[in-house]
Design brief:
Layout lengths: L1 H6 L2 H11 L15 H12 L23 E5 L6 E8 L9 H13 L5 H9 L5 E7 L7 E8 L4 H18 L3 H18 L3 H13 L6 H10 L3 H11 L6 E6 L7
Parallel strand pairs: 1-5
Antiparallel strand pairs: 2-4, 2-5, 3-4
Helix pairs in contact: 4-7, 4-10, 5-6, 7-9
């Protein structure tokens, strides 16, 4: 990354700006008791001069490939704590039909340090970490990295590494339980509807839905889509997109080698 930054020229920045800071790439959501005509005048005065350009394309060719897992140590002398990440390119896109099943699958495994499988094992049972989470990330332009991030004290790193991977492997074998699935579905559907109780929440949700081409109807559809997810769908996501044998590992801390 740093090499590419050092190599960047003024012309590269201008090209980037010209291609991306365009009218077709802007989504503006305004929610509240406003005068529509007046708002449109203000929008035109502020943004009317921006070139139209082209709308970002989120339907790009898939690039995820099965690569041999790698382990990387980033030595950071003097760092008090250790962070490690297990992750892989899952192939998931935000517009894929199994998106809702994927977020439910992730929730039971590592969404919360308080209630997830990894959280209960590494944080509660073994007392190794207070800060951990897992997510599907970069699912718009990239192929949905699935990753889990755990922060620990140096003396706990080796055990936490083993316990985290063991819990991922066990989840891959067992799949999600009915209770775990219902809790996750209730959380995502309910939290989404609560967010729609404010103007800011509605504006954010409208913008997010429009970004992926779903339109305003998605605000009503999303909770129903989550609640319709089945256990078979979730377990298929676990098999297809959370694969313990494909996980890369990155460790950042004051070590000369990865703790074993």
């Amino acid at each position: 990354m740093f090499a590419s930054l050092d190599a960047a020229k003024e012309a590269d920045l201008r090209t980037f700006y010209r291609d991306r800071y365009v009218g077709s790439g802007i989504i503006l959501s305004i929610v509240g008791d406003v005068d529509q005509a007046r708002v449109m005048e203000q929008v035109e005065s502020l943004f009317g001069g921006i070139p139209k350009g082209a709308r970002p394309n989120y339907d790009r060719p898939r690039t995820a490939a099965d690569t041999a897992p790698e382990q990387v140590l980033e030595t950071m002398h003097g760092k008090a704590n250790v962070d490690f990440v297990y992750g892989e390119a899952s192939g998931l896109r935000r517009t894929d039909p199994d998106w809702e099943a994927a977020i439910v699958a992730n929730a039971a495994l590592g969404q919360s340090a308080m209630t997830s499988r990894i959280g209960k094992r590494v944080r509660d049972t073994e007392g190794l970490s207070y800060n951990l989470f897992s997510r599907f990330l970069l699912s718009d332009y990239y192929d949905g990295v699935w990753m889990t991030d755990v922060a620990v004290a140096p003396q706990n790193a080796a055990k936490a590494l083993r316990s985290t991977l063991d819990e991922i492997q066990r989840y891959s074998r067992e799949g999600i339980s009915e209770d775990e699935m219902e809790v996750a579905k209730s959380y995502f559907a309910g939290n989404y509807q609560v967010r729609l109780g404010s103007n800011a929440g509605v504006a954010f949700s409208l913008t997010y839905a429009e970004k992926y081409g779903y339109g305003p109807r998605y605000l009503d559809e999303f909770p129903a889509r989550v609640r319709a997810v089945t256990r078979d769908q979730v377990n298929k996501v676990i098999r297809d997109r959370i694969r313990p044998d494909k996980l890369h590992l990155v460790v950042a801390g004051d070590f000369d080698e990865i703790p074993q």
